Amino acid sequence: MSASWTRGAAAVATLTFDVDAETPIFAEGRRYAEHPMVMSHQTYGPDVGVPRILDLLDEMGVPATFFVPGWVAEHRPGLAASIVERGHEVAHHSYSHRPPTSLPAGAERADFERALRVFQAQGIEIAGHRAAMWSASRETPSLIAEFGLSYDSSLMGDDRPYHLETPHGPVVELPVHWSLDDWEQYAYLPAPHIGSVIESPVKVEEMWRAELDGMRHYGCLFNVCMHPFLTGRPGRMLALRKLIAYAQDLGDVTFARCRDVADWARGDTGTPVRPLPTYDLDAAVYPE
Ligand code: ZN
Known about the structure:
The chain is α/β, with parallel strands linked by helices. 40% of the residues lie in helices and 14% in strands. Helix 6 (140-146) links the parallel strand 4 and strand 5.
């Protein structure tokens, strides 16, 4: 089993940070740009959260992956490079953070390419992609392969890496799940209504520790999705610090960048192929 994607670990942990900043709010309406409270709630992510997260990762000696919308990289020149310089990965997270499943035909491709141009101009080499709001369309995996990226991290068909086949070749899927997303724990904003929860970081740490234990039992990918404007808050950072320390003390969890896990999965002959679910439904039974 030397070729196993886990490289001998009981579980592999990918700490991922989606540096959405203002973009999910703009996707709800350009008018919110005139609302200083809402905008400052979002700018906190890159301004305060990201530096704090980078310091924690340095302190704990673990690598991470930062999914950055092209708009955010473009409007904060130097942000992506500052992440790569610290040994972490920057990956594609759309240009505008509009969910591909709600875009008109052709718009996803334009948005996808626009982000790639931003990263290229900044000398940031991109290997992977995560759809805005995880709402990958049926075309998303094909776009990823067409532009030479190796992985996606938006879907939920397994808790270990799997292959998606596309007309442009295979893509590795590094699956996510709502239970390992800080949005469901910490996102609170009255308008636009992006969430209405402010959970205890103690609860979140306990919940994620339980998931990590289960994933060590079953040999899974502990793919945690966090947002600097949410997890970057002080008590939540301490919870994340405790979670990382817990995993390190176990001694059987490997922390890795997503691009490395994608490489390991590609080299593992046991990685399954899981096609996008496809249905031919009776419109008389399911009218919409
Ligand atoms: Zn996002």
